[in-house]
Specification:
This protein is of the alpha/beta class and 270 residues long. Helices cover 36% and strands 24% of the residues. Helix 6 links the parallel strand 7 and strand 8 (213-218). Helix 4 (133-146) crosses helix 5.
Length: 270
């Protein structure tokens, strides 16, 4: 069992919000690529211990927003604060230190094909921790067990893994430095419904066991309502609606109604 990160106080999802509860604060964020406006004045907050799901159609700006949270992109204007730190304005050394506290699960899992599963999971530990080799190997085994991959998987190459197993390895690697914030970019993309449900259940398990704060970007409506404490709906670079799952389901916003209607069968059958 992996202990809860020391830097992550116990979540209080039902308690009153306060400055110390806010892990992520995005304020009036704008970003364009040439003539294409990817983000147009997005503002949102994520409280300690909660899971915020950002959903919307492909190309609406979800992944662009996620990349701003970890400093992979810089805004044209606006602010991105994580743990109170201005991600958009940090010097490289400070940004690197902040990223150690943030786990990222990429859409494609982003595993190094030339490294074994164990070497992939160990990669951030070898770069950022003082642990000796034996301790790193033990940590890798612990992480793979947490994501329910059997002993011996650490010797397997990524090319031999199924899509669902690659996602699990990506999650294990994201947990290596015991982050208190995890960002998931389309964690169920390309998976069959049963495997997607298994990945969702793993994300929920990690929240329950580790008390992490999570931001999940997805266009999978079933996953969104399975995972989210709150759901934010984006379209064309704008945040159109946000609220608890039941509030989104009851929303009268035209975009939300259209988005839900196109996926009504999936939601009602989940």
């Amino acid at each position: 069992m992996i202990s809860e990160p020391a830097s992550a106080p116990s979540p209080r999802p039902g308690g009153p919000a306060g400055p110390s509860d806010v892990v992520v604060a995005v304020r009036d964020l704008w970003r364009s690529f040439g003539t294409l406006s990817a983000l147009a004045g997005v503002s949102l907050t994520v409280r300690r211990g909660e899971t915020l799901v950002i959903m919307g159609p492909s190309g609406c700006g979800k992944s662009v927003l996620l990349k701003h949270l970890v400093g992979l992109l810089k805004p044209d204007r606006g602010e991105v604060l994580v743990y109170g730190c201005p991600v958009h304005a940090l010097p490289d050394a400070d940004l690197d230190a902040l990223r150690i506290r943030i786990g990222v699960v990429f859409q494609s899992s982003a595993l190094f094909d030339s490294l074994s599963v164990g070497e992939n999971v160990a990669f951030p530990l070898r770069r950022h921790s003082p642990l000796p080799g034996e301790a790193i190997a033990a940590r890798v085994r612990e992480l793979l067990a947490l994501v329910e991959l059997k002993e011996g998987t650490e010797r397997v190459m990524p090319s031999a893994l199924s899509g669902g197993m690659r996602k699990r390895v990506g999650i294990a690697r994201a947990l290596a430095m015991r982050p208190s914030l995890i960002l998931y970019d389309e964690p169920t993309s390309g998976l069959d419904p049963l495997t997607a449900q298994t990945v969702d259940e793993l994300i929920l398990q990690l929240r329950g066991e580790l008390g992490v704060t999570s931001v999940v970007v997805t266009h999978d409506l079933v996953s969104a309502f399975r995972l989210g404490d709150r759901i934010a709906v984006m379209d064309a670079g704008r945040l159109e609606a946000s609220g608890r799952p039941e509030e989104i389901l009851a929303s009268s916003h035209p975009l939300v109604r259209r988005f839900l209607a196109t996926r009504a069968v999936a939601v009602t059958s989940s």
